[in-house]
Design brief:
Residues 1-114 form the YCII-related domain. It contains three helices and six strands, in the order βααββββαβ. The chain is α+β, with helices and mostly antiparallel strands. The protein has a single domain (2-113), classed as Dimeric alpha+beta barrel (Alpha-Beta Plaits, 2-Layer Sandwich), CATH 3.30.70.1060. The two termini are 24 Å apart.
Amino acid sequence: MLYAILCYAHEETVFAWSKEEEEAVMGRLRAVQEPMARAGRLGPVGRLMPTTAATTVRKGREEPLVVDGPFAETKEALLGFYTVDVDTLEEAVAFSKELSKVNPGSTSYEIRPFYVFHPGEIKT
């Protein structure tokens, strides 16, 4: 089963890290990711830029409206994501717990199963 593991954090904390702090956290995260990657179960991993760099397309009455940022009423923001291919939810939870232990910037990890779609592919 494919799972997306969404990492939420306080942006002001994470984006204020020094280069040394950032490198230390990323090193600890790589150590947790390595066994999953070696097993061929870790898919794309992404780190998102801060919400101040975001653009949102909102459904409008007639035409979609394009605005700066998500303007979410929350202190946490989606910081990044992992994709994993594991047999059970428990495996995804265990991986998320390990990530959480070494990532001082994260506040929570949300785990969601997902399906992959390939628009434009024709199956015969």
